[in-house]
Amino acid sequence: MSEIELLDQIENQLKSLSDSADQDIKNTKKEGDLEILRVSLLGKKGKLSNILKNMSKLEAKDRPKIGQKANILKTNLLEAISDRKNQLLNYALELKIANEKLDVTIPSTGTPKGNQHPLLSTQDEIIDIFCGLGYSVANGPEIESDFYNFESLNIPKNHPARDMQDTFYLNDNLLLRTHTSPVQIRYLKDNPPPTRIISPGRVYRRDAVDATHSPVFNQVEVLCIDEGINFSHLRGTVLTFLKTFFGDLPIRFRASYFPFTEPSAEVDVQWKGKWLEVMGCGMVDPMVLNRMGIDSEKWTGFAAGLGVERFCMVRHQIDDIRRFYTNDLRFLKQF
Known about the structure:
- The chain has 2 domains: 97 residues; 215 residues, BirA Bifunctional Protein, domain 2, CATH 3.30.930.10.
- It is built from 11 helices and 9 strands.
- The longest helix has 37 residues.
- The protein is of the alpha+beta class.
- A 7-stranded mixed beta sheet has the order 1-4-5-9-8-7-6, sandwiched between helices. A two-stranded antiparallel sheet has the order 2-3.
C-alpha cells in the first residue's frame, strides 16, 4: 500500500469512528454504559488506539497531521460523552422529582419524642417526694465563696475536714461548690425559721474518674429547722423517703462525722448483696445556727445530703457512673 493510500485509509477510519461514536453516545441510556463506551473508544485498547497503530508506517511529515486530527477527535468525543452524562443525570433527577412529589398540605405524622435523661428523671422524683413531705425547692450559685462553702458550715481554714472535699479553686476566695449545703446558709440568711427546703444542683470535686466517682455530679441537700426537732424526726424523714423511692430495700444508719452536723450518720441500703452508702445526715450543729443569728436554744434541725447518680444507679441497676455522661443513645433510649 502506498503512502497516499495509507494516509487516506487512516483519515477515513477516523471520520468513520467519529460518526459512529457520535451516534453510539446519543443512543446510550445509562451512565454505566456510557463509561463502558468511553473505554471502548478511547481506552488503551480502544478503537482510536487501534487506528493510530498504523501511524508508524507514515512518513514523518504526515504524522503531525494525523496526530492533530486524532487529538481533535478525542477532545470532541470526551465533550460529547460529558454532555450525554449530564443529560442522563438531569433526566434521572427530573424523573425522581416527578415520582417523589411532596404534598405540603398533608398533616404531619409527628416527630419521635425524646427521652428524659435518667439523672433528670431521678432528681425530679426525689424532688416530688420531698415536696409531698412539705418541703420547697431552693437554689444557689455553682460558683461560691469560701465563706458560704466552708466557713459558715463550721469548716474554718486549715480545718482537717477540708481534706474530705478536694476543691476546684478559681481564685483566693471563689471556688466551684463542693456540695449544695451553701444554699442552706444563703436561704437562712434571708428566711427565718421554721424552714423546710431541699436544694438540688451540680457540685464539683477533684475526684479521679472511675466506676463510682466523677468530678461533676448532682446532689440534693435537705434542711429542716423548727422547734422541737430531734434525731427521731430525721430518722423518720429519711426512712420515709428511702422506702418511697427504693421500696423495701434493707436500710441501716451508721455513726459518722460531718463538721456542720452533730450527731452525724451515714445511711446505707443493701444492693447486690452489699451495703452501699446513699446519704449523709445529722442534726444541724448549733454553731451553724448561731452564726446565722438563729437561737439554737429555741430552734433545732437536721440536714441530709444525697447523690442523684448513686440513687439512679441503684434504681436502674447501672454499674458505672460514666455511662451517664457518654451520651450513648443505646444507653439513654432505655429510659
